[in-house]
Design brief:
The complex is a heterodimer. Chain A is an alpha/beta fold. Chain A is built from 8 helices and 19 strands. Chain A is 21% helix and 40% strand. In chain A, helix 6 (354-361) crosses helix 7. Chain A is globular, with a radius of gyration of 21 Å. By secondary structure, chain B is an alpha/beta fold. Helices cover 37% and strands 29% of the residues of chain B. Chain B contains 9 helices and 12 strands. In chain B, the strands form 3 sheets. In chain B, strands 6-9-10-3-11-12 form a 6-stranded mixed sheet, with helices on both faces. A 4-stranded antiparallel sheet of chain B has the order 2-1-4-5, with helices on one face. Classes of the chains: A alpha/beta, B alpha/beta. At the A-B interface, helix 6 and helix 7 of A face helix 2, strand 7 and helix 3 of B. Bound molecules: adenosine-5'-triphosphate and magnesium ion (MG).
Chain lengths: 405, 251
């Protein structure tokens, strides 16, 4: 990857700016940066980038780092039982929490460079920790902002839900203006202890010039349950890499995502549901509705290790094309090394149903509103996964809004 | 002028001519029935009037209260006041009955004006009660997994919520059990009024015992080949269509 971020002078200047950081953090950055600098040239043919116009995810036009986007805001009930702080604040307040950084590996689904750049240059993000047995229905909310014109911003999120805690986290990704070309790269490390439960919602509505890299790795302990619902609505291009590792017995990983694209928007999605322990469940449903020239790529793998007997795992990708020029590529995959498992995967791509469209129109509904209703209907089984009714209504509005702008 | 007026209408799908110089007039305030053998073009006629894009009009005119319908978009035709209860209603996954009907009503309101939710639900529930539909249906996806009879009731529910000027009911009676036929027919009868024309397409005299037509027409090979009063339906029930086909062939 050709970027100025690989130059020693650039890294030195960054380190100077961050001279207030403790030595262990500086060491971590230095080590990450060395690994970045040592990365081999990108291969022309890389299965992890199959179908992807990879050049669109480069950093070459956004070669300045920003330390001052509109700062991330955090909202939620404050409690002795919770830590919810910005990344920078946590470096000072909770070095022990951040000490896991060197051991984190990310999703490893193709964006090694972005992962190592994020480890080297992260300046925002948050740390969230729910202590043992803590239960709160009210969601914790984080609002992230994209960087300025020609800038890149790297974020680290660390989310730790201790045993038997149950929490909801909502993350919004927004742009401050409608014209800036910037790259926002977010690395999320999510760890759930025994019996912990995390409901997480992601709403991405970056402006139509931005690039979004969303890399996450979720690790589930025994009986832990993770449910994610993502709405990918904005950006020029978004690369999602999501890994769910079921490490403890009977962990449950649910990953639901919808993308709604128009113009030349690109959604490049790579996922893995990795069953390491037995009796685990995982369910993945990614739906993409594509207008104009927009494009979606979905590549998903269900991997079941020999020890992961009695796994139930499902993976589905559905694409709805609303224009002749829209395009969807789907690469579902299974790699099953245990024999007592229930696994299935499937992918479909279909055009909008003309009879359905006519039916709505025959009731007086205009074609554009009919398309909106059909798309909302198509997404209903994603949005419906959210249990909070007010939140469900607001997510439907997010999708509706897309058609109004 | 207060008519649904069809003059010399011809239409085809692909290379196949289905409607041939069809003439038909439905005045406001009247109920007409069209009967006819399978494949004679009854559903095609209703879909052509509703603006279905699969059919090409190759000749003639169709107007509603003086406004030409042919060439308009389906949604424009509907907003002008034509309602078609489909023979085979379409499933719309993920769109609830309530949201669907709200969108249809909203499409008739001036820009910026909104539906009053309380009144909307009051009216909707009242009409569902009348049609013997369980209120829980409002949150179900339109027609998805509905039984044949449930779909037909749902068509009538939409019709009654949208207050059309002209209604075409394409085999609304098929798929209904005996009790449902009575309930749905009552629903249709309640829609009868001097400012509304109703056209029922049916195969069965039974429906016409409930919804007594002012006129009965027979369609064959894409044309209306005979018209009469309600006794024509009884005659058809008795004798079938062969005698009419023979008469047409002889003429
Ligand atoms: N979209 C279409 N594509 C091809 N053929 C069609 C299409 N629509 C109608 N037809 C043909 O046109 C003819 C008339 O069909 P139509 O559905 O109008 O008949 P109908 O009178 O409603 O019959 P029924 O009593 O069985 O409902 C049939 O031969 C049918 O196969
Ligand atoms: Mg028919």
């Amino acid at each position: 990857m050709k970027t100025p971020f690989g130059s020693p002078d650039f890294f030195q200047a960054f380190s100077d700016k961050r001279s207030w950081e403790p030595g262990w953090m500086a060491d971590f950055r230095k080590d990450s940066w060395n690994r970045f600098a040592a990365l081999p040239q990108t291969k022309i043919k890389d299965e992890k980038w199959r179908f992807s116009p990879r050049a669109r995810f480069g950093y070459s036009n956004c070669d300045q780092l920003t330390d001052s986007p509109k700062s991330t805001t955090l909202e939620g009930k404050s409690s002795e039982q919770v830590i919810f702080e910005s990344f920078d604040q946590a470096i000072l307040d909770h070095p022990n929490l951040l000490s896991i950084l060197p051991s984190l590996t990310g999703p490893k689904l193709g964006s090694d460079a972005t992962f190592l750049l994020g480890s080297s240059f992260s300046e925002s993000g948050f740390i969230f920790k729910a202590k043992k047995n803590y239960k709160e229905e009210e969601p914790f909310i984080c609002k992230h902002f994209a960087p300025k014109q020609n800038h890149s911003l790297f974020q680290q999120n660390i989310v730790i839900v201790e045993p038997f805690a149950e929490v909801t986290l909502i993350e919004y990704f927004d742009s401050e203006d409608q014209s800036s070309t910037g790259v926002l790269s977010n690395l999320s490390h999510i760890q759930l202890g025994e019996g912990a439960k995390l409901n997480r919602v992601v709403v991405q509505r970056l402006n139509s010039h931005s690039t979004f890299n969303h890399l996450e790795k979720v690790e589930l302990g025994r009986n832990a349950q993770f449910t994610n619902v993502s709405l990918q609505l904005g950006s020029a291009q978004t690369r999602v890499e999501s890994r769910g590792d079921i490490i403890g017995d009977a962990g449950e990983f649910n990953n639901y995502s919808l993308s709604l694209g128009r113009n030349n928007q690109l959604f490049d999605q790579r996922t893995i549901q990795h069953h390491i322990a037995p009796h685990g469940k995982s369910n993945l449903l990614f739906k993409n509705a594509l207008l104009d020239n927009s494009k979606a790529i979905f590549s998903g793998l269900i991997k079941v290790d020999p020890a992961a007997q009695h796994t139930d795992s499902f993976q589905t990708n559905r694409n709805l094309l609303l224009s002749k020029k829209a395009e969807a590529d789907s690469l579902p995959g299974l790699e099953i090394l245990a024999n007592e498992v229930k696994c299935s995967h499937g992918a479909t791509t279909s055009k909008i149903d003309e009879q359905e469209l006519f039916y709505l129109q025959s009731r007086g509904i205009s074609k554009s509103i009919a398309e909106k209703l059909i798309v909302l209907g198509f997404f209903e089984d994603i949005i419906g996964q959210v249990s909070n009714v007010d939140l469900v209504e607001s997510l439907r509005d997010e999708v509706s809004q897309f058609f109004n702008t | 002028m207060s008519t649904l007026q069809i003059d010399n209408l011809s239409a085809s799908v692909g290379k196949e001519q289905i409607l041939n110089n069809l003439n038909f007039t439905l005045p406001k305030g009247e109920v007409h029935a069209i009967m006819g053998p399978n494949g004679s073009g009854k559903s095609t006629l209703s879909k052509v009037l509703a603006g279905h894009p699969d059919y090409q009009v190759t000749g003639g005119n169709a107007s509603m209260d003086g406004t030409e319908l042919l060439g308009l978009n389906p949604d424009e035709i509907a907003r002008l006041g034509l309602f078609l209860a489909f023979q085979y209603p379409v499933e719309v996954p993920g769109v609830s009955i309530a949201n669907f009907i709200r969108a249809a009503i909203k499409s008739r309101l001036p820009e910026g004006e909104n539906i009053k939710a309380v009144e909307f639900y009051k009216e909707l529930y009242l009409k569902m009660d009348g049609l013997g539909m369980d209120r829980s249906f409002t949150s179900r996806s339109m027609n998805e997994g509905f039984s044949g009879g449930e779909k037909k009731r749902c068509e009538i529910l939409q019709m009654s919520m949208l207050n059309p000027k002209y209604c075409i009911l394409d085999e609304t009676d098929s798929g209904l059990d005996i009790d449902a036929l009575r309930v749905v027919s009552e629903g249709i009868n309640q829609m009868k009024n001097p400012d509304r024309g109703i056209l029922v397409i049916t195969h069965y005299q039974r429906l016409l015992d409930y919804i007594v037509p002012d006129k009965v027409h027979v369609m064959w090979e894409g044309r209306i080949v005979r018209s009469g009063d309600k006794t024509l339906a009884l005659e058809l029930e008795d004798k079938g269509y062969d005698w009419i086909k023979e008469e047409v062939a002889a003429a």
